[in-house]
Amino acid sequence: MKDPPILPSEITDEAEMAQHQSRRKFLKRGALTVAGAAAFGGGLLAISSKRGTAKAPALSSLPELSAAPPSSAAPLAPIAPLGPRDALTSVEDVTTYNNFYEFGLDKDEPAENAGSLKVTPWSVVVDGEVDSPRTFGIEDLMAAFPLEERIYRMRCVEAWSMVIPWLGFPLAALLAKVKPNSRAKYVAFTTLQDPVQMPGQRSNVLDWPYTEGLRIDEANHPLTILAMGLYGRALPNQNGAPIRLVVPWKYGFKGIKSIVKISLTEHQPKTAWNTAAKGEYGFYANVNPDVSHPRWSQASERRIGDLARRPTLPFNGYAEQVAGLYSGMDLAKFF
Ligand code: MTE
Fold first, then answer.
1. How far apart are CA 147 and CA 129, in angstroms?
2. Best mutation site among 245, 253, 261 for ligand 1 pocket (most ligand atoms within 8 Å of CB)
3. d(CA 320, CA 115)
4. What is the C-alpha to C-alpha distance for residues 197 and 252, in angstroms, rounded to an integer?
5. Of ligand 1's atoms, which has the minimum distance to the CA of residue 209?
6. Which of ligand 1's atoms lies nearest the C-alpha of 162?
7. Helices (H), 121-198
8. Atom of ligand 1 at shortest distance to CA of 212?
């Protein structure tokens, strides 16, 4: 009998595994110091014993979304060029190899557990240093902002990467609607907090809710989008339904999922990973092969589906578009 084929997702690269485990171990240690052994033990057990309780629906059962044709004023290709080695990552890998700690720490757990997230109804508050604060229902966002397909590379801080066809709209278009005032220097994002729907929040591996932030010029950059779909359909829960941030030149952890609040702020906001370990995960988190993570190199990465590693590109290959945002900054200091 012939051996069954080995799926790319079943092949584990040892270096990558070491990085993932190292990040997990770090989290476990962190949780111990923050919360004490008893709370920590209960929390992690709670995470790992809920495996498979509410499997997320398959992508094929989610509503189809259509993208508006790219406008001639802003043709897509110059905004987001892909390289010859940037084949799309398979739907299977994009939707089953995830980081979404609200649903568990292992890569397969978000797809197994995120069925408990209720994404309708959903609304996003946009407030802070703005003249016209507003709460948008998901339907309001769909009606107000035509979706564009953006095929971006995504580079995780753990040194693996994917190429994902997102459906989304520029964050700048949403910010323009609420009229930021002159004090608005940063944009802060918050994920839903609900330990009933998000069982991972019952443990304190991170300071929940998950938060992220951008400088306002980064937020207004045309590459920065709010994604509501991928591969032609609504976002699967495990990928951050119903709406998540995508900033392709930064490490994947900046791409906060299942957003309920966007606040314009005068001061740099607190962000989840930076709060957990500020020496390891900077506020900027621009992909940078020259600045190692304290526990692993960022010089190369494994594209999910490939066996060999490849060099990591500055700003994840988007330097031409975004390097100007950081001119004069010491990127080793502001990592
Ligand atoms: N957002 C929330 N709320 N919680 C998370 O754990 N993980 C981040 C980011 N957004 C995370 C999150 C990390 S570390 C990465 S690499 C990306 O989501 C992964 O996105 P994907 O699972 O869609 O590939």
1. 26
2. 253
3. 39
4. 23
5. 3
6. 24
7. 138-144, 171-178
8. 1
- Residue 323 CA to residue 321 CA, distance in Å, equals 6
The torsion angles phi and psi of 16, rounded to 5 degrees, stand at -65, -40
pLDDT tens digit string along 105-131? 999 999 999 999 999 999 999 999 999
Ligand 1 site residues (CB inside 6 A) read 98-102, 156, 191, 210, 239-240, 252-253, 255-258
**What is the C-alpha to C-alpha distance for residues 270 and 236, in angstroms, rounded to an integer?**
27
The dihedrals phi and psi of 316, each to the nearest 5 degrees, come to: 55, 30
CA dist 211 and 213 (Å) reads 7
* Ligand 1 center–CA 63 separation, angstroms: 22
The SS3 call for residue 19 is helix
Q: Is the dihedral of CA 95, 98, 101, 104 positive or negative?
A: positive
Hey, what CATH topology would domain 11-326 get?
Answer: Sulfite Oxidase; Chain A, domain 2 (3.90.420)
β-pairing, 211-215 vs 225-230, is unpaired
Report pLDDT digits (tens) over 70-112: 555 555 445 677 999 999 999 999 999 999 999 999 999 999 9
2 Cα: distance to centroid of ligand 1 (angstroms): 38
Task: Supply 302's token pair.
Answer: 């494994």
Q: How many CB atoms lie within 10 A of CB 9?
A: 16
What is the reported pTM? 0.88
